[in-house]
Design a protein that fits this description.
Length: about 300
């Protein structure tokens, strides 16, 4: 290895280093893209692959300045949201709970791409129903609403922050390549509230030193018949990010801690669940942790 005291032509050294970095970076980008496409191609149970069609591409940045492109795509396999007029959308956005209107969408894995300036960037594919996509062509409000909910969906899924200053590319419908995605073949059943929240002897806090016990609501789905999922919603207003959360699931017990000593929850569950197949999602906006647990038996 050459030490810092050696003399050489710095221009040649710089050119050689930059060429090597470019080759390594290009190889890295290709491998990363290949890995992302392989992940997308894996079919999971109760799902089917879809081939999204391009729509338009939105350019923005992350909070740390990284360049991001969001490909808004279409597929008739994605169900449309309830029909809503522009006036109804305005009324909804001005209401106390605008999250009541949900747009079904499929969020693809991030894939590394190269922009027009030959710089590395990250692209995401968001797939919606063509009927709702067509509404954006005649309404600036619907367009802005779609981009806003797409950004929020990506932020919640991938724990990132996107700048709300964005630009739609004029001459490109998408950046990079659009990979196939997998969507659920069966719609998620409706959610039914349990008759009551956990009883005091079910919900216990270990000690004040571990943090206060947060509000917990359990729901089951489907509304009738044998429960398939147990859904826990835990309000954590003091927790801005999931990074401070530690969740431990057993077959009939759930333990949650929020560092440093903000919250602590230790409770027994009314059903036997499958911890390995359970999933948790922290919503940055509402600061609610949602845990979806497949039910495998009665407690």
């Amino acid at each position: 290895m050459m030490d810092s005291s050696s003399h050489c032509d710095q221009s040649l050294l710089s050119a050689e280093c930059e060429e090597g970095i470019d080759e390594d970076e290009n190889l890295y980008q290709k491998l990363l893209l290949q890995a992302a496409q392989e992940m997308q191609s894996q079919v999971t149970p109760n799902s089917k692959p879809i081939k999204p069609e391009p729509g338009f591409c939105v350019k923005t940045k992350t909070s740390d300045g990284g360049k991001v492109f969001v490909n808004i795509c279409q597929s008739s396999q994605v169900p449309p949201p309830p029909d809503i007029s522009e006036a109804e959308l305005v009324e909804l956005l001005q209401s106390e709970d605008p999250s009541g209107f949900r747009v079904p969408m499929s969020l693809g894995e991030p894939h590394a791409e190269i922009d027009n300036s030959s710089n590395g960037c990250t692209a995401y594919d968001v797939v919606i129903n063509p009927e709702f996509f067509n509404k954006t062509k005649g309404s600036e409000l619907v367009l802005e609403f779609l981009i806003a909910v797409s950004f929020e969906g990506l932020e919640n899924k991938y724990d990132l922050q996107l700048c709300r200053e964005w630009k739609i590319l004029k001459n490109r419908k998408f950046l990079g390549s659009i990979a196939d995605q997998n969507i659920r073949t069966k719609p998620r059943p409706g959610i039914q509230e349990l008759e009551s929240r956990l009883t005091e002897d079910q919900l216990t806090s270990l000690s004040d030193s571990l943090g206060e016990s947060p509000p917990l609501t359990l729901t089951v789905e489907p509304p009738q018949g044998e429960p398939q999922y147990l859904i826990a919603e835990i309000s954590l207003p003091k927790v801005p990010s999931s990074r401070s959360l530690v969740l431990d699931l057993g077959e009939d017990r759930m333990v949650l801690s929020a560092r440093p000593s903000l919250y602590h929850l230790d409770c027994f569950l009314p059903f036997i669940i499958d911890p390995e197949s359970s999933a948790a999602q922290h919503h940055r906006g509402t600061r609610i942790l949602t845990i979806t647990m497949p039910v495998i038996g009665s407690a």
